[in-house]
Design a protein that fits this description.
This protein is of the alpha/beta class and 216 residues long. It has nine helices and seven strands.
Length: 216
């Protein structure tokens, strides 16, 4: 698709085969996000930056009354997602497609213009235009719905050596915690930002107010 797509494919071409096994040890808060999604009966959920489909599959099993969609810029990761979704027997309820998180047409991809829940799970820290992706995610959140995010925090309560080591590790994968996430969320609406594990990670939620006016 573009340079970002090529970069992500180069990073995950081989890693996708063991990605979920390794990431469970330091992508903390993902299961808590899924537990708090709570889509309505017959609800529609979108994950932006769905990767291997791990979160979508877990969420679909937890909420059998909802439909799930995911998009990712990496064709390599989506190959794994398609395989895992099929293996889980969820092809009828979980659909994924390749797209840019900051510039996608949900109606063209999924024949859906808005979603009851939209979430980012450790993807904003990898998206170059993360603010654009955040705005786009909020724009496709249905009125009365919620945008939910889990991602790296600033680790301010953790030892300096740990922060340095984590920063070095994340840089290898072109990951950068977004220190300005809080202010960016406040620009969208009434945001709730909760630190997890000494601010190792952050769980955020922005309700889509019925009066919100965000250009799509």
């Amino acid at each position: 698709m573009n340079a970002t797509s090529a970069l992500m494919d180069s990073i995950y071409r081989h890693q996708r085969h063991f990605y979920d096994f390794t990431r469970k040890y330091y992508l903390l808060g993902r299961d808590r996000l899924i537990a708090e999604l709570a889509p309505p009966e017959g609800g529609i959920v979108l994950e932006i930056g769905c990767g291997t489909g791990r979160n979508l599959i877990k969420a679909a099993k937890r909420y059998p009354h909802a439909l799930f969609y995911g998009l990712d810029i990496s064709a390599e990761m989506l190959m794994t997602a398609h395989t895992e979704i099929k293996r889980a027997g969820l092809e009828d309820r979980v659909k994924v497609a390749q797209a840019d998180a900051a510039d996608f047409d949900a109606a063209a991809l999924f024949n859906r213009a808005a979603f009851d829940r939209v979430f980012f799970s450790y993807s904003l820290s990898m998206i170059p235009d993360w603010e654009g992706a955040l705005a786009r995610g909020y724009a496709v959140t249905a009125e009365g719905g919620r945008l939910v995010i889990v991602d790296f925090g600033e680790q301010k309560r953790l030892p300096r050596w740990f922060r340095r080591l984590l920063t070095w590790w994340l840089t290898l994968f072109h990951v950068a915690p977004r220190a300005e996430l809080g202010p960016a969320l406040e620009e969208l609406g009434s945001a709730e930002l909760k630190p997890l594990h000494g601010d190792y990670a952050r769980l955020a939620e922005v309700p889509r107010d019925l009066r919100s006016q965000v250009a799509t």
